[in-house]
Amino acid sequence: MTETANVAQRASNNLILLIDDQPIFLKAIAALLEELGYRVTPTSCPMEAIQFFKEKSYFLVLCDLYMSSLSGYKLLTRFNHDKPEQVCCLMTGAELDEPLLKKTLRLNNVKGYIKKPIKFEELDRLLANIKKQQLSV
């Protein structure tokens, strides 16, 4: 499959891999994404996320930065190595000057972040921007 076909397929795919080790956030964000018309594969376990990542193609991987077993940085670094074309975004309560957030935002596959607590309008805007970026490639 050509890179152009790959990009078009990802942009038309509405499946999101959602990773957050806090079940209450996972459930709430999954509900917001579903309300926006996306299909969601939610997981609170980074190791399970790695397995899901291997099995399917996603429009977006949306990952918490700070998790107890494996940081978002380490997980997205692995994803960048395995499938560098996969678009990823972070969710975090951290401020932009936080060193781990700055380091993670420099990964090639990370195309943005959204601040927690997540607002419906901000999530909708982030997803629209990601879709626009994918279609313009």
Description:
It is a single chain. The chain is an alpha/beta fold and 137 residues long. It has a single domain, classed as Rossmann fold (3-Layer(aba) Sandwich), CATH 3.40.50. It is 49% helix and 19% strand. It is built from six helices and five strands, in the order αβαβαβαβαβα. The protein has helices at 3-12, 23-35, 46-55, 72-82, 99-105, 120-135, and strands at 15-19, 39-43, 60-64, 88-92, 110-115. A five-stranded parallel beta sheet has the order 2-1-3-4-5, with helices on both faces. Strand 4 (88-92), helix 5 (99-105) and strand 5 (110-115) form a beta-alpha-beta unit. Helix 1 (3-12) packs antiparallel against helix 6 (120-135). The longest helix has 16 residues, at 120-135. It is globular and about 30 Å long.
Structure characteristics:
disordered N terminus, 137 residues, Rossmann fold
